[in-house]
Amino acid sequence: MGYITVGQENTTPIELHYEDQGSGQPVVLIHGYPLDGSSWERQAREIRAAGYRVITYDRRGFGRSSKVDTGYDYDTFASDLNALLTTLDLNDVILVGFSMGTGELARYTKLFGSERIAKYAFLASLEPGMLSHGVPQSVFDGIEASAKADRFAWFTEFYTNFYNLDDTLGSRISEQAVTASWNTASNSAPVAAYAVVSSWIEDFTADVDAVRATGKPALIAHGTADNILPIDATGRPFYQAFPEAEYHEIEGAPHGMLWTHADEVNAVLLPFITR
């Protein structure tokens, strides 16, 4: 494991924790809310086994990265990603984002270009913009209020819908795995639980256009039973806006498909990476 410094908050450096394992072409995996880089466990091991170097990192405020009070916006997140890529001098990178992590891929390209990037993969994406595709502002206001009032209770509620536990608990995910996710969330910065919410509802149209303009291969994959980022407000209109991308719907998969539907996700992701 390692740390890179991406800024300063008062008297302390802002550091991102990362792990860098395997060898070969680099694949950078960007996690979702409210998790950290370890949430890629079931994908990272398969990607390494296929002969790739895998880098995961914890977004500011999450995991073992600095628990800062500021910077919970996509311009800053993209700048943090740029710091990681430049500090490690990564080139020919396959960028893979999940959920909130898909925002970094597109915003990074708009702000910093695509010289270092070979391919893009968007899993359970935020794009192209939920407010313009039927999700009302009141939903996000409620999320922010709940997370601010009692983030621990909020995380319990969130994971019920993140993993569709009414359908998957005991069959596709264990109680222990849910607890591990909850523990990860509870160790994040208190402010991060609600400060990131406003970033989810940005209009990513210009960011998507920037990725399209690169002409580089892209993958979009989304679960049909996603209760956090419903496919009709995200994955399907995203593909309509980006028809050149390879597109897959993972039948019955909830938002937390990296765990519950790991085999199905890997069956889509690994061929894209290795192709």
UniProtKB/TrEMBL annotation:
Instruction: List the keywords (alphabetical).
Output: Hydrolase, Oxidoreductase, Peroxidase
For this protein, the parts annotated as crossing the membrane are: none
What Gene Ontology terms describe what this protein does at the molecular function level? Answer: hydrolase activity; peroxidase activity
Q: Which residues form the AB hydrolase-1 domain?
A: 26-262
Q: Which Pfam families match?
A: Abhydrolase_1 (PF00561)
Q: Name the protein family.
A: Belongs to the AB hydrolase superfamily. Bacterial non-heme haloperoxidase / perhydrolase family.
Family matches, as PANTHER family: HYDROLASE, ALPHA/BETA FOLD FAMILY PROTEIN, NON-HEME CHLOROPEROXIDASE-RELATED
Return the protein name. Alpha/beta hydrolase
